[in-house]
């Protein structure tokens, strides 16, 4: 297949990418797309499979096309904290570093658009607009990390669980990231187990289950099969995420 045909196939595939409208590769110029298309490879992972292990040397940088990934860190004594969940359009891998500080494991089936790290860094230097877009996304991620750091340090378990459900709503539709139209969304699928939620929020499984039950009895949420959650009283959930007795 000629270079022009390969580029045409890549453009066609990327135009159908569910992460394309929100990822760092949205609205690429032809030159940027050409340079990236020469590097990108799609890889598929089964739920439960590990992509990279903590402290491993890694040359991977990737964009999540579909699915959910959890990033976790573990202490020598076995204690674990999930530090982040990645979904469509999120980036996986540390640029300008050769060591992964986190273990990346698939919560669901995952499709990644992968780039070798060093050549990708060279593309960023060649196209500063793309590097700037990646920088802005990193700053947004830092803001979210600080928000969760505050929650884990100062908020009580009811507030954390309520905040987690609101976060799921916003992740469901990135257009709701400012919280302005959250009332438009009420039904979501939670791909995470109670253990994963507990490890993310710094709680026990029993505490998470107890808080979900309290929200259900209070009429704030409804729990459905296959980890589906319906938000019945969004105003109450928002209020609970800020104050709890």
Task: Name the features.
245 residues; Jelly Rolls; Arc Repressor Mutant, subunit A; 2 domains; 8 helices; 11 strands; 21% strand; globular
Characterise this structure.
By secondary structure, the chain is an alpha+beta fold. It has two domains: 3-142, Jelly Rolls; 155-242, Winged helix-like DNA-binding domain superfamily/Winged helix DNA-binding domain (Arc Repressor Mutant, subunit A, Orthogonal Bundle). 42% of the residues lie in helices and 21% in strands. The protein has eight helices and eleven strands. The strands form three sheets. Strands 1-8-3-6 form a four-stranded antiparallel sheet. Strands 2-7-4-5 form a four-stranded antiparallel sheet. A three-stranded antiparallel sheet has the order 9-11-10. Strand 10 (221-224) and strand 11 form a beta hairpin. Helix 3 (117-126) crosses helix 4 (128-154) and helix 6 (194-201) crosses helix 7 (205-217).
